[in-house]
Amino acid sequence: MNNATTALYVPINYVSGSPLSGTATWSASTFSSLGLTPGTYTWTWGSGANADFATLTIGAADVPEPATLALFAAGVAGLARARRRRGAV
Predict the structure, then answer these.
(1) Above pLDDT 90, what percent of the chain?
(2) If you average pLDDT over residues 53-61, what whole number do you get?
(3) What is the pLDDT of residue 4?
(4) Considering only CA atoms, which of 54, 67, 58, 68 is closest in space to residue 35?
(5) What are phi and psi of 20, to 5 degrees?
(6) HEC string of the chain?
(7) Are 45 and 51 in contact (CB under 8 A)?
(8) What is the phi/psi pair of residue 83, to 5°?
(9) Which residue has the higher pLDDT, 88 or 52?
């Protein structure tokens, strides 16, 4: 039998329906040493007008795809070239 109590604690001045966010950092620790598995976890509860959810993301932000990085680099190079041309006139 599980005797654990499930609760969500919010700041004293929290207004229902407002978003909550936060971060935590542990120096010299890994996800594994903290017993965490990287991923995104979502909990939902209630129904209808009382429905709500919480999302927990464990791990680094998504790394952009190589094609996205290449497009970004081309844009930066184009801006630098346009700036040099404008200065040369």
Answers:
(1) 0
(2) 79
(3) 62
(4) 58
(5) -115, 145
(6) CCCCCCCCCCCCCCCCCCCCCCCCCCCCCCCCCCCCCCEEEEEEECCHHHCEEEEEEECCCCCCCHHHHHHHHHHHHHHHHHHHHHHHC
(7) yes
(8) -65, -40
(9) 52
Alpha carbon dihedral 75, 77, 82, 84, in 10-degree steps, equals 160
Q: What confidence tier does 61 reach under pLDDT thresholds 50, 70, 90?
A: low
Q: Tell me if 69 sits within 8 A of 75, measured CB to CB.
A: no
**Residue 24 clears pLDDT 60, i.e. is over it:** yes
| 8 Å CB contact between 58 and 37 | yes
| Listed residue (21, 14, 13) closest to 55, CA to CA | 21
Residue type, 76: V
The C-alpha atoms of residue 25 and residue 23 are separated, in whole angstroms, by 7
